[in-house]
Amino acid sequence: MPGVEHRFAIEEKKQETQEKHTRRLDKIAANSRSTLQKLLIESDKNNDSDDALFNYIKSLSPAAIDLELRSLVSFNDLQHFLRAIKRRLQSHLDFEAVQALQNVVLRIHADVIIENEDLRTELEELLKVQKKESGRVLDLLASSLGTLGFVRDTQ
Question: How far is CA 145 from each of CA 8, 29, 134, rounded to the nearest angstrom?
Fold first, then answer.
């Protein structure tokens, strides 16, 4: 017929196969773990030095760190992370890095942490360790300022 445009339904079939393909990818992505998550699990199992974890975090760009921290969506991931930064504070290393990471995680996941009793308990323990370590850092700073003042006065 003149004026009628003939079309075939090939494109619709292609779209259906692409949707099925993305569903498979979504399932795979949901079960896969990021490098940060793997390092968190490993450091929590070993309960030892978190050097590998924090070296990895330090090697990332700020945007990549933000993405990794946003990927901590499960209860276990958040619990592993809170324990890792608590252990890092107890080892007297990377005070500023821990403060920055804690700030970002609390901004992103505060609602989940507050709602969950176990995570809230972890956070309260972290607060105690943080206050203790903050006091230690402030004492070191005051001592350094005192030494600096003494050296200035002798010159």
Answer: 80, 51, 16
